[in-house]
Structure formats: structure tokens, C-alpha cells
Amino acid sequence: MVQQHAKATHIRSFRDLVAWQKAMLLARAVYQAPRGFPKEEVYGLTSQMRRAAVSIASNIAEGQSRQSRGEFLQSIAHARGSLAELETQSILAADLGFLDVNSQEPLNNLICEVGRLLNGLRSSLMSKSNEN
Predict the structure, then answer these.
(1) Whose CA is closest to 29, among 53, 55, 57?
(2) Rounded to an integer, what distance in angstroms lies between the CA atom of residue 79 and that of residue 66?
(3) What's 29's DSSP letter?
(4) Residue 131: is its pLDDT beyond 70?
(5) Most confident listed range (28-37, 82-91, 96-105)
(6) N or C: which end of the chain has fewer CB within 10 A?
């Protein structure tokens, strides 16, 4: 019988997580996207989108820094919720004509990519908890 050896990845910090790195790219994109929004949206949709985007990366960082897998999973769930908020807000911004196709498409691509990474991170943590 051939033994499979998984390549060990050592995560020393939340900064090592690809999900966090991509969430940070998403947050930067969200900060740049609303530059064309009407001024009256500065405290409305613009602010909500920015808060949701920052929350995604922040929850990943907080969860990875916690001492238990369960707390990390809970933080990923919060990050996924914030991602869904952001996706909804970006759809609304596009529907209202605040985001043009050139801004919305890359933003939506990043939203989808971060979603896949969060799902993968969650699955990885779930499978590790099943091993114990």
C-alpha cells in the first residue's frame, strides 16, 4: 500500500492565508469603486459597502487568531455573511447606475473568488475537525 504524504503548510499568521490576501484586494477594490457614486451616497451605500468589505478580511484575521477551530469556523461564517452583504450592495449599486460594467465585473469576480476561498477554508477546517 502506497502512503500519501500531504504537503504541510505552516500558517503562522492570518497574513499567510490566501483567503485573507484576496479579501484585502477586494476591500481595496471596494474603496476605489464608489468614486463615481453620487455625493449623497457617501454615508449610505458607499459606507455600507466599505464596512462589509473590511469586515470580510477582519473576520478572517480574527478567526485565525483565535485559539479554537470552532471560533475560526464561526468567524468564517461571519465573513461569508459580510461577503453576501457586499454582493447584494454591489448589485444594487449597479442597478441604480452607480457602478458601470467596467467597475462591477472585476468587483464581482473578486467577490466570487473570495467566496470560493472562504468555502475551501471552511471545508478544510471541517475536515480537520472530523479527523480528531
Answers:
(1) 53
(2) 15
(3) H
(4) no
(5) 82-91
(6) N
DSSP 60: H
pLDDT at 128: 75
The answer to whether the beta carbons of residues 57 and 37 sit under 8 Å apart is no
Stated length of the chain = 132
Cell numbers for 31 = 474603496
Domain positions in the chain are: 17-131
What per-residue confidence (pLDDT) applies to 10? 63
Crossing angle of helices 18-32 and 45-65, rounded to 10°: 160
C-alpha cell at position 80: 461569508
Torsion of CA 26, 31, 32, 33, to 10 degrees: 80
Domain 17-131, what architecture?
A: Up-down Bundle (1.20)
